[in-house]
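Input.
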Amino acid sequence: MSPATEIEVAGPFVLSEARTPRPSVFRHSGFLFGLVTVSVALLVALFPHAVATQDPLAQDIGNRLVPPAWMSGGSPQWLLGTDHLGRDILSRVLYGSRVSLAVGLWSVLIGGPVGLLLGLVAGYRGGAVDSLVMRLVDLHLAFPFVLLAMAMIAILGPGLWKMVAVFSITSWMLYARTVRSSVLALREREFVQGAWALGATGTRIVARHILPNVVNSLVVLLSFDLARIILAESALSFLGLGVPPPTPSWGGMLSEGREYIEDAWWIAAFPGFAIMLVTVGVSFLGDGLRDVLDPRFEPLNDRTRGGDVGTAKT
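Output.
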């Protein structure tokens, strides 16, 4: 048949040899919300002094428990109020973003490549190597994530880089298992078998044919795991196992504010809101990346949603 020949196809979708054009990422509202939220959070973490009006460690007992500026008794000098030691809540929330984002970003940047490498090797080589890596993964997954992290931090002691090490060690298996599953499916595909038949080495096959097909899913997984680690870091800081005081952290501020929740709700409310906003933004960013990067994602247009008869060109 000539390319212009059309045949009627009954069904709810329009069948076409050409894929439906992918929508621009800038039309994806969730992706835009996540991108803006994460970008602002990163800028604040990098340059908190550009927004903060007070020293986050400076104590002023004479102005303790001052409410936010819009409430009765508040002052424009402390827009979000002060805590039980007279420290500025706004400045502490801004500087506290450094801890949560640093732990989350460094953990995924270290654990991600380790999991990627082990997943590629295990999935492509198989045999004893695959069994060894998967037994290590099973051993890690046998322990609850938070309990394992608490035990390791209790042994190593609190600290920023110790938390990064703990989260990197306890998260690599998630990436390894996901990558291994993708590699097991990809190594049986025709283009991989064809490259092997033409004499390509295993390293070349993995680097040129398998790795590009697993990077997209790994990027999406990293974005979702970033939100999980931010929440876990806040939980450990809330329990006193995070960065030691007086360094501000969102989880630590929540822990300090719980004793004043009835009389000074703002001490815990604003760091809690910051945690919620950043984690939701990261999750929306990951969801948008999944829709944009997933090759199987096909947005339905108005014509395909109605279930009408469509046309296909052959």
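Residues 21-297 form a domain with the MetI-like fold fold (CATH 1.10.3720.10).
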